[in-house]
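Quick one, tokens below. Sequence please?
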């Protein structure tokens, strides 16, 4: 993770030579931001959030504005998210970037990270999207394994329908993440409609 974080940040800086702001933004969004997003589908969030102790030198980058307040240990998704957001704002704001207060830059960051349908640029925060990616991918894996005729052979001594029997690391992480999403992020579990609420096949759609 540390080597990947350093490689991504270096590639983000290489894109400074791209003068067109649209091309620059697209390369950051689709080619750099997604590198951790794909990895997050298979790597548990706790592993993804381990610090990237790569000894960043503030003198190497344009951190004078204070938009990124880095300590010695920064989780990899936070590090890459900060680097990409800052690169977008520096290109979009130009010389104005260095004149804005920390409060104004924080507001600009919100706009960059908001989804498109809310008026933002859709650079989803990697710590949050990483949890969603791992949860979705692992939940789909459980559904697929459950559909196999000999599912018990793939998950020995575990019942996929009974989370309390799960002992593999991926399934235990899925269970803990499920609880965390409900308790810390106020997510709600979707329930299928009751049979009595379903329309008969010949009933017109409501």
């Amino acid at each position: 993770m540390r080597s990947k974080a350093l490689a991504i940040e270096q590639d983000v800086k290489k894109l400074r030579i791209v003068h067109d702001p649209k091309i620059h933004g697209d390369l950051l969004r689709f080619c750099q931001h997604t590198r951790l997003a794909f990895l997050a589908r298979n790597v548990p969030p706790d592993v993804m959030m381990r610090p990237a102790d790569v000894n960043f030198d503030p003198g190497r980058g344009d951190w004078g504005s204070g938009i990124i307040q880095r300590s010695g240990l920064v989780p990899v998704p936070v590090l890459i998210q900060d680097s990409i957001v800052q690169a977008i704002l520096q290109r979009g704001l130009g010389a104005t970037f260095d004149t804005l207060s920390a409060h104004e830059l924080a507001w600009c960051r919100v706009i960059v990270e908001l989804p498109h349908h809310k008026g933002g640029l859709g650079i989803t925060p990697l710590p949050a999207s990483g949890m969603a990616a791992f949860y979705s991918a692992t939940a789909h894996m459980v559904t697929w394994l459950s559909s196999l005729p000999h599912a018990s052979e793939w998950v020995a001594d575990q019942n996929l329908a009974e989370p309390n029997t799960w002992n593999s690391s991926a399934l235990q992480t899925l269970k803990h993440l499920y609880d965390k999403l409900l308790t810390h992020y106020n997510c709600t579990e979707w329930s299928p409609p009751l049979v009595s609420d379903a329309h008969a096949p010949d009933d017109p759609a409501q």
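The chain has two domains: 2-127, 129-189. Confidence is low (pLDDT under 50) at residues 56-69.
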